[in-house]
Amino acid sequence: MGLTRKIAPFLFLLPSLLLLTIFVLFPVANTLYLSLINKNGEFAGIENYAQVFAHRDFWSPQNFIEGKPPPYGALIHNGIWVLIHLPLSLFFGLLLAVLLRDIKGSAIIRSAVFLGVVIPMIVGGVLLRFIYEEDAGIVNAFLRFIGLGHLTRTWTAFPDTILIALILGSVWIWTGFSMIVYSAGLEGIPVELFEAAKIDGASRMQTFWRITIPMLKPATIIVVTMTLLWELKIFDIVWVIQGGGPAGGSMVMAVLMYLFAFVYPFPRADYHIASAIATMLTILTFGFAAYLVNRMVKG
Amino acid sequence: MSKLKLAIGAWLEEAKSRLSLTNFLARLKSIKKFTILTHILAWAVSLIWIIPFLGVFMASIRPQQEILNGWWNFEAFNPTLEGYLGSLTHSTAPLSRALFNSLVVTIPSTFLPIFVAALGAYSFARFRFPTRDLLFFVIVLLQTIPQQMVIIPLFFITLRIGLWNNYLGLILVHVAFALPWQILFLRNFFSVLPVEVEEAALIDGASYFKIFYKIVLPLTLPALASLTALQFVWVWNDFFFAVVLILQTPESRLATTAIPAQLGRLEPNWTILSASSIMVMIIPIAIYVALQRYYVRGIVAGAVKG
After folding, report:
1. Where along chain B do the CATH 1.10.3720.10 domains lie?
2. Which residue of A has its CA nearest to B153?
3. At residue B19, does pLDDT exceed 50?
4. At what angle do helices A121-131 and A162-187 cross, to 10 degrees?
5. Is the interface score ipTM higher than 0.90?
6. For B144, which of A135, A229, A297 is closest by C-beta distance?
7. What is the pTM of this model?
8. Domain CATH code at residue A228
9. Residue-wise pLDDT tens digits, B83-100
10. By CA distance, what is B38's nearest residue in A?
């Protein structure tokens, strides 16, 4: 009995540990290893990483510094993606969650907004490409409608506009996530708090800033970390629309990694460069991931 | 008779007053301005999400020429099922085959990990052993690993053991990637279940595995809906594993990998592409609509995927 009690927990864990070791843990270690050796199998230190930074599809800040339109390279594109997408997703998610609280038909609206998170990202990419088309796209129809007809173009076909078009499109796809988490957060705030504020004569704005926002802190933490992970790993929508192009205008880290590993023909294909990009991507996400997981495990 | 006339007259009066504009405005006034404003704003904002979905549906039932003039133009309107037929029988990426292949991969990838994860989660929830908390933390952390960080070795491993371009290999990868979040989800679920029944069974001489199989596993049924909904949608929607681990041929492509193949390099055929989009996304949407409550519960519980 004593022996069984000691072995039992590991027997229960065995299938999980086996699968995780073969298909997750070993590959992670192997990718890290590949990023540190060269094509001859010799230890290369940070050589591959230096090569990644020397590649203009990863790092070309000249245009950025001079205030010219993209391409700036994948790393800066991912950074811009975070800077624009994160605040907008938070804002629209919170706005919708608050707005929809006492709206007739809110269940329908919520479901429609949340569809972006439910559908395959590949389909999301097709939808974005469609709405940005010069003649067939609704975005240009809207621009013509409000008198900005001179701006119309296929937004995803030019290196200087594709990045911002995709970022705004990804806000459209992802807002449902922050809305759903914020909606759940709002439901968790005790009604008594709002009633007490009302009795004390607090205005709508005061109630919002002093009660709603502070009480939504746990929801905000989930939304911010998950959104960061999602943005940094963005792949499908970029790949299906222009594969990182045109002229590197929509290149992001995940796409560049895929190009080096599985698309470029030899001798340009390079598993070591690809592994170095993957490792950097993982390091970038790791801090947020560890923070979030730590909270989830404790909660 | 006069009574009936009176009744009809009164009814007509009331109907008129209901229809009159002044009365309508008076009724509106009784509702707070703020409420009206938020309703208008909410529905206006939601149009941003509804219109593109409406657009892709309209495009899927109209010929390419009409779409190029804008799917919102109805001067010529000749609804057609050509898009759906063309997509299902597409020469380089027939969606009929791709949808079937996706089901072949998704169904086992949805149900297999639940059993494996339940075993692991039970161990974390009911036993104390050295390194337990650290091991748990590491396993849960694995769910945030980007797919890019594992894909090159996975390509070579599956090639080495003969599971590359084999749905079994793809299924095993999906099972492994589902374990971290499902173990977390189920451990939290088991932790709040009362242990008394299991302790009584233990005293009666039941083995640990029998307790798990007979008592604990049936109790996971309420959690099953969340696990199934999220995992099914995730596997169905996955593109990255499917495009690397499966050779891209008309016979072997999955639903998500068929779409870029149909997109091609030339001017896309929006009728076919829209029809494909509808058919590929309708399945996760149906799962979401059917299991909405459980789906959202899983999301809010913090189901992260690499």
Report:
1. 88-300
2. A27
3. yes
4. 120
5. yes
6. A229
7. 0.91
8. 1.10.3720.10
9. 999 999 999 999 999 999
10. A99
